[in-house]
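user: can you give me the structure for this one chain? tokens are fine.
assistant: on it. calling the predictor now.
[tool input]
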Amino acid sequence: MRSQLTRHVLRRLLASDAHIPLTCLHPTFVLSRSRPTFRVYPVGSRVARTVQKRTFIKEFFAQKSPRALKQLETEPGYAILLRFHASENIGTQNSRRPPAPDELVQAWREFFAYKTKHGRAVNSTQALSAHRVLLHLSTSPANPRGAHLSEDDLRTARECMLKPPRDYFLHHVDFSREIYNELKRRGVLQSSDFNALLTALSQYGKALEARDRVLKYYQTTQDKEPFDTRFRQFMPVIRGLAKEDRETEFLALISKAREAGVEYDPTLHGIMTTYFAKKNDIRQAKLWFNNQIKRDLPPEPTTYYEILQFSLRNGQEKWAMEIYQNLISKLESGEWQNSKPSWDASFQWAVLLLGKGMDHIEHMIKVAYEHNQDNPNSQPNIETMNSLIKIATDKNDPYMAERFIALSKKLGFEPNYKTYMLQLEYRIRANDLDGAFVAYQALEDLDVTMEDQELATLNSLIRALCAAPNPVYERVLDVTSYLEQRLVTLEPETVMSICMAFLKNDETYEVIDTLSLHTAYYSVVERAMVQDAFVKYCLDKNNSTARVWDAYSLLRQFFPETPLESRVKIMDALFDRRRADMAAHTFGHMRAIGNPRLRPTLETYVRFFEGIGKCPDEDSMRTVHNMLKMDTTIQPNTLLFNALMIAHVACELPYRSLDIWKEITASPEGPSYASLEIVLRAYEITPDGDALADELWEKMKRMEIDIPKHVYFAYVVTMAAHGHFTQAKTLLEDMENAVGQPPHPFDLGHFYNALPSRELKEEFDTWVNEEYPKAWRALRAKYSKTSGKDGQPGYKVRRPWKA
């Protein structure tokens, strides 16, 4: 069996500082102590290539020197916060004493300072851990009122909570509330604290709570707060209600805000117009767009864009033309002459509404130059062209976007980072991966800070490269390394794509690097996404057994929190691949897990022994049976005994199976129908089993047991296996009267396979052609014939086992 987890790989893992199993939401969540050095080998040496023959001298001078990549930093302090959370979980086997308050305070400061410095979002697991630490420090008798955490510490964490995470927000809401309550308990609340709470509640699905708070606050401080403060309080709540589509409450709060003195400025105008435009509410969208903005300021460019899209969707081109004419009039009259966003909006409308071409747009840009000769800040520039490229991208028209790129060069505009990102986006949409990579190379050397949307585009590029029919792995590594050097944690979907692509290319080292660098910084939900991808890979029958085992080994190494159900599915899949030895290893790994919730249950043992029934392997069976004997958490019952009988019969150990049968009959629970079928199948391969089967059969008849088909047929096959052909035929003929069902085609196949001699098989063939010709033809049509271990002919029909 081929495996990539060689000694060299294990040494790399150790050198990279192994993972520490710590408990958070899941008791076996893993966090890396430090982010390891990554991808120290040149790309060419990592990607599988056709072997090239070189002399020693040529090889020496042809080697690429390893790229010196920046060491990625860990998120300082988080390990201690997480360790505290682990210690709080009651019943966890590895629970330990929590860190001291001073250690927690220092970890808190380091963690949130790092998040603030790099602008990183706090994921849900991190928010929960920090929340638990705050509660501990606030309520600990030795640490009254959380005195070791300063107001600045709390406010730093509060600001970090306002950057939305990739997963769910519940813990962010609870943590934001607790920070606010702690500041309130200390009597140090400021208006900025209240505004931050309103923002958090509004953007995380609690806009109604935010509305109630702001209205109550406004009633008590109606005339005490300045206008700017009132504006900052109402606007996030209004946005939140719009986001949650609470129209009634949304309109009511707008009225309250206007009463409080909030003016109808371009921001509020944009929120109102965009809300109804996205709902395709023609009357309300027109009403709010046409409302006079204070001091006759122009609408925001995003509002213009949304209302244009709305008009085109809803057949309101005539009304849109009026808006466009009014826009052009105010630009040319000089009223909005210095508003560059309005000029940019006019170019967009000319393209989308009027369908103007490049020549007309070029002329309009020159007109804008003439109107703003003395005001360079209002002249068209590369951002103007970016706004035009964006509409082509949103329209999914790469040809138009390329023409705008060409026009930009003609006008002498130097492309910037956003230009290349837009180019990258529309080329990915057009599945032009070569062109997309060229755009990526152009932006690679630009030293700029990337926004979340731009990071999402680069993640999309990696996924597109991985999803190509023939991925170019050097390109995947190029983009991945670029982001890693910038301390960017890839999206879970991207990590999934990278891992799956490299597993298919047997590049296990790259999978290890990727998992080491990213998964330790994910929340429990994000880790589960990557974990599920590995489980699905292991269950995919199209993947080779060697690759599946490599994937499982990585799953076990990096995701020790993998649930029992997923592990059992992998075990079953290995049995289906006829690899009972691997299935036994997976069972042993489950048995060795420290977390009791992930250890094998009685049902897991049953599943394993049933698997042995499908894929007999005596060594594997004995290994797990010995584990069962030493497992004090398992109380054997009939179900488990049945499974053990199955395993021993499948491994051709019928007498040991009959010993287990005696344990069943002596147990308080007694045998089940499945027990009866299994013991009859044990009698089938036992030398004196026919007499024992007759004895059991007579006992069942005396007790007037209602015998189901599978038990009846097991007795029939036992008689056939011991050469009692006439008796077996009689039982088969009487089967419909006895159990209400005639023999199925595969029943006939099992009967045929059980007969001990070629002569009896030939006699049965003649007889069954006369008695059950249709069923026999169906068997021969569906199942092929083969030779068994003893050289006797037989049909490839599998007889299922069920405990």
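assistant: here you go. The domain at 566-795 is CATH 1.25.40 (Serine Threonine Protein Phosphatase 5, Tetratricopeptide repeat). Residues 276 and 282 are 8 Å apart (CA to CA).
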